[in-house]
Amino acid sequence: MRNQYTSPLVPSILALFLCLWVSSATNANTLDPDFGDDGVITTTLNHYGDTAKAVIVDKNHKILVAGDSDNGSDSDFSLARYDEDGSLDNTFNHDGIATTHIGHNDDHAKAIALQEDGKIIVAGYTFNGHDNDFALVRYLQDGSLDTDFGSGGIVTLPLGDGDDIANSVAVAGDGSILAAGSSAGSSCQEGIIVRLSPNGSIKSRFGNEKSFTSHLHNDTSFQDLLISTNGSILVTGYSIGQKGSTIALKRYLPDGTPDKHFGIGGTVRT
Fold it and tell me: What does the alpha-carbon distance between residue 154 and residue 158 come to, in Å, rounded to a whole number?
């Protein structure tokens, strides 16, 4: 049976789809005719169900799009790289597209980050046969898996008793990798941040020695992550209480402890 988890904040689309908009004083928000087909690119990756979830531009102005595609029986991590004009970059995995099968069933990529050395980190989740686990994959600049990261370029992390979903990823100044998302326990879902060493192993002395969880109300999920220049960590997402969903913004010190000088005990709720 296929796992059917879908984030409530990210709708599914059925094609890997890019639009590039340009803005000027006289003609704002028009499609750029120099990009793709009059500003639009659609790329078929596999049988069906190609979904783009994250985009980033590298130092060489290449456009990287991460998501997932259906291989006919389940979903895999997918990564496509485009030149500035929107054409697929054939120097990336020979055809501009890399797909990676991780677990027993569906694998879904949700976030992308770049290291200073140009290596590409894609984060999301994989179904282990029972529930979902954090999943991170690192690629070299040519689109091949980085075998110095985790097991053959792949790291999977079972964190809680239920679904563990990575929604965002970032690289700190010391090269460590932070992934933020949610982890479901026996009674609730918590927002969670995990810090990894550059080789993909769990770093100690961060939060509860491998991660930091935040339970604000009944259920919490971190949706995005940013590391500031001084090393502090900003995460945003939502928490659900008796009156419904609340926007949450939290700031942590580099060691994973809440920054008590930010909001109330490190948290701002709106």
Answer: 13
| 20 contacts 32 by C-beta, under 8 angstroms | yes
Distance CA 133, CA 127 (A): 6
Separate counts of helices (H) and strands (E) for the chain: 0, 20
- Residues listed for the chain: 270
Q: Which amino acid is at 149?
A: F
**Nearest residue to 55 via CA among 127, 117, 110:** 110
The pLDDT of residue 181 is 93
Mean residue pLDDT of the chain comes to 85
Residue 188, pLDDT score: 79
**Which of 39, 50, 88 has the alpha carbon at shortest distance from 72?**
50
Model confidence over 109-140: pLDDT tens digits?
Answer: 999 999 999 999 999 999 988 899 999 999 99
User: Residue 218 region, left (φ>0) first, then alpha (ψ -120 to 50), else beta?
Assistant: alpha
pLDDT single digits (tens) 227-270: 999 999 999 998 887 677 788 899 999 888 889 999 998 888 88
d(CA 251, CA 171): 16
Q: What is the pLDDT of residue 10?
A: 38
* pTM attached to this predicted model: 0.85
Q: Bridge-partner residues for 59, per DSSP? A: none
Question: In degrees, to the nearest 5, what angle opens at C-alpha 119 toward C-alphas 117 and 120?
Answer: 145
Q: Is 34 helix (H, G, I), strand (E, B) or coil?
A: coil
For the beta carbon of residue 227, count every other beta carbon within 10 angstroms.
18
Inter-residue contact 63 to 81 (CB < 8 Å): yes
Which amino acid, one-letter code, is at 113?
Answer: A
